[in-house]
Amino acid sequence: MDFLRTLLLLQCRRRYYALLDPNGVCLSFKHCREAPKGQQWVEIGEPNLSWLRQPLPTRARIVYRARAITARHLLSI
Fold first, then answer.
1. Rounded to whole angstroms, how far apart are CA atoms 62 and 56?
2. N-terminal to C-terminal alpha carbon distance within the chain
3. Helix, coil or strand: residue 28
4. How much is the average pLDDT of 66-71?
5. Pairing between strand 26-32 and 41-44?
6. 3-class DSSP assignment, residue 76
7. Which of 8, 11, 26, 62 could cysteine-pair with 51, CB 3.0–4.6 Å?
8. Which residue in 17, 55, 54, 50 sits closest to 36, CA to CA?
9. What's the CA gap between 44 and 33, in Å, rounded?
10. Cα-based distances in Å from 6 to 13, 25, 26, 38
11. Do 34 and 14 form a contact (C-beta atoms < 8 A)?
12. Which residues partner with 29 through β-bridges?
């Protein structure tokens, strides 16, 4: 039963977002399951109140890397 609960919690994990102005200054934070609408929102690891009204540190952003092509994928082409 604990396994199922853990599995469901992983799927419903909320993520953190920061709203940036055109200069990259952090205006606010949001904690939600889906990405907010708008291009100024960026996903971050966790919010830090000292970032408000400051340029968002590069280390704060979550960057998704493209998946590497595997041998299995190449064989299926």
1. 12
2. 41
3. strand
4. 70
5. unpaired
6. helix
7. 26
8. 17
9. 13
10. 11, 36, 33, 31
11. no
12. 18
- Which one, of 39, 63, 38, 61, lies nearest residue 51 by Cα? 61
Give the pLDDT confidence of 8-41 residue by residue, as tens digits: 655 567 899 999 999 999 999 999 999 899 889 9
> What is the amino acid identity at position 51?
W
User: Angle CA(10)–CA(47)–CA(43) in degrees, nearest 5?
Assistant: 65
Among 59, 50, 51, 63, CA closest to 20: 51
CA-closest candidate to residue 18, choices 34, 40, 50: 40
| pLDDT at residue 44, rounded to an integer | 96
Residue type, 67: R
Backbone angles phi, psi at 29, to 5 degrees: -120, 155
Q: How many residues does the chain have?
A: 77
